[in-house]
Design a protein that fits this description.
Layout: H1 15-33, H2 37-49, E1 53-57, H3 60-74, E2 79-81, E3 95-99, H4 106-118, E4 121-126, H5 132-136, E5 139-142, H6 149-154, H7 159-180, H8 184-189
Parallel strand pairs: 1-2, 1-3, 3-4, 4-5
Amino acid sequence: MPENARGARAPPTGGEFRRAVEYIGLKVTESLSKIDPAAVGRAVQMIQKAPQVFVYGAGRSGIVARAFAMRLVQVGITAYVIGESVTPIVRKGDLVVIFSNRGESQSSLQTANIVRREGAELVVVTSRGTSKLSHAATLLLLLEFQEESERAVHAPLGTLFESGSLRLGDGIVAELMQARGENEASLRQRHAIMV
């Protein structure tokens, strides 16, 4: 932050906010435009076919995974978040979706190993197509971002991946809505009401 004449930091002007928002929007849109629509179609088919869908992510990727699970439930899919105390076990025929930026976290790899052992299908959303997690995937949805100096300033750590994953999940939900004949009114009926 720039300093004023007395050496105190000047108040923010909002310039960094605008640059960050524009940068994140541009980079996420570029990455999502490279995803093959056929892969998204396959993900939608896998979600609809599975008796149960489980989602997993560590850290901020886990927050995105939870948002995706919530939307799946609202669209009428039986979905769970791995790690919750009320989540049942994964069985053969189920689907697990793992969100992992680098695709190398131990918890994600351990989850993938269990998924494969049980005979469930695995969709991996990651930014690293060469990661161990990517190689375990039944279906890989790759969100790639170029490493550049602006990223560290405007979208530190996993910001681009997380923003891209959230939009990817919402796009998949839109496809599910169309395939299942759902609309906003039917989703609202499954929306949790807090009293």
